[in-house]
């Protein structure tokens, strides 16, 4: 019987408990992945990279640039960016007026099946993505200021307020509520808002524009890496290149934990209370300068037995 370790992580004002697999080190034999800028529609987009613990100045993003873990992008109010992540995706669309960090992009293909580790940090706006089916040891997560969304083989639409719409497949949303971490399974054709704890069937008014976007995204998701190179050459006259200032060898940004993709949940949906650790005293997060939760005895670490 495996054990899952519950750890405290403070992100801004909101507090989210993070679940990790203690049996698998996803970085053990990992190769760094990359995100190729496949398309930019509309106006301007920019990127920044982390160096010596600090973010660089914003630079203009161009079609064909390869970005790596430790990068982030932002889009103008009339701009969308499509990223081809290859094994780690394959495709993410960053919508207008949005910000997205590439915290971890890595994969391990040394075994019979490829294990991927994709961790995205949505700081503003909204993203859409298409994710191929993943094996149990893989991890694909979207972090927002108030939740972690664990993705399997899924078409998703996630906003910075953690509202999650699933077009195909399912996702697990882990969020903090009154010092307690709760998870909820969002099923296909559902929209879930952790703030209001509301689950609704995705109405045509909601799904129509999302479906229109996926009509453009799905063909990109079906492209091979070679086809992406050909498309970039056709558009820019040159093959993809490392974005200036980025480092293909940079280590991933450690967020202090991640959602266990194997967390047992009610397949019919519904909230599952997985920890009851009321926050009693604040402390200051050294990275953000904001209050981060703790208990009188310090950060919490509790083992929870997995389901048989």
Largest sheet: 12 strands, mixed
> What's the pLDDT, averaged over the residues?
78
Number of helical regions: 2
| CATH fold call | Jelly Rolls
Q: In the CATH classification, which architecture applies?
A: Sandwich
Radius of gyration: 19 Å
Assign the CATH class: Mainly Beta
The total number of structural domains is: 1
Cα shape: globular
**Stretches with pLDDT under 50, minimum 5 residues:** 1-24, 255-270, 272-286, 291-308
Element string (H = helix, E = strand): EEEEEEEEEEEEEEEEEEEEEEHHEEEEE
What is the distance, rounded to the nearest whole angstrom, between the alpha carbons of the first and last residues?
7 Å
Portion of residues in beta strands equals: over 45%
Task: Estimate percent helicity.
Answer: under 10%
Notes on the protein architecture:
- With 308 residues, this protein is mainly β.
- It has one domain: Jelly Rolls (Sandwich), CATH 2.60.120.1440.
- It is 10% helix and 47% strand.
- The chain has 2 helices and 27 strands.
- The strands form 4 sheets. Strands 3, 5, 6, 7, 9, 12, 13, 15, 16, 19, 20 and 24 form a 12-stranded mixed β-sheet that branches.
- Strand 15 (139-143) and strand 16 (147-151) form a beta hairpin.
- The radius of gyration is 19 Å and the shape is globular.
- The N and C termini lie close together (7 Å).
